[in-house]
Amino acid sequence: MRYLFLLLTTAGCALASPIDDPTEGAKDERGHQASRSHALETCEMALPSETLTLEASAFGVALATPTEDGRALVQRYQGIGCDLDPVGLPIASHGLLGFDDAGQAYVFPAPAEGPGVVATDGEAIAGPESLVARVALSGEVETVVTARRGIWGFGVSPEGSTIWVDSCGPTGIFALTPTGLAPSIPTPDQAWLSAPHALTGADRFWSLEAESLQRASRAGQVEVASTADGGHQSGDIRVARCGDRACTWDARSVARWSDDGELDARIELDDATTRIRQVAGDDVGIYLLLVDEAGARLRFVPTEG
User: For the purposes of burial, counting CB atoms within 10 Å of the CB of 33, is it exposed (0-12), middle (13-18) or buried (19 or more)?
Assistant: First the structure.
């Protein structure tokens, strides 16, 4: 079995170098540089030390930082690696829940306290965690799902066509249709005991059961790997969406898995003072939200090319 192994230090890394080839400046269908893999380098950028949440997609990344009143402002960035540009107005929220390839953010709603911020609280029915709002790049806000007594977990597929939700209301995996939610993949029996989960496609739902990484599709649920093979040292292992693949991670390491359970990338920190707060990825690399005594940093590690 072959996979990419990366032992990372906490020293600052240079930003990705300019692309020096005939495709420089060319864009793909998402507006990204045409050369997506071979020109990317491991890089880091500083973040506000209180940064709460990271989500990533083929569009770029979304980051949530807290406000003084206990809410969170979400800012979207377009690009690849550390070449990221802010897009759109900040979004008022009570939490960032997802981010799709079209640059749409999924949040618990909140009112905007001032101008220049997208308000998302127009239809909250019983508190901020009873509704998930989808915010388009234009600033248009739509309700995705409601549950009067609370939503405990939520995620979205990269293309934004399918969601998973755990709530006192709709619970399961659903396709988003013009008329509402439609059941999609049958819900695995024990999936909700190990939230969070990850949807890496409309027909690929990942969950953890003890040390077993499970993948469910319309054909049923199968065990694809043991997280012990990912080299994790902690018992607190989580699963995250890394483009069209799944990542498992703990405070010190990240492993990325193919659909058939092959370990194809592994990242390990070597500085005991640094820990991983969150992990997300796209089709060419993995983003890590890192924290230590000095603050927070966003690190991008390319995994293709």
Answer: buried
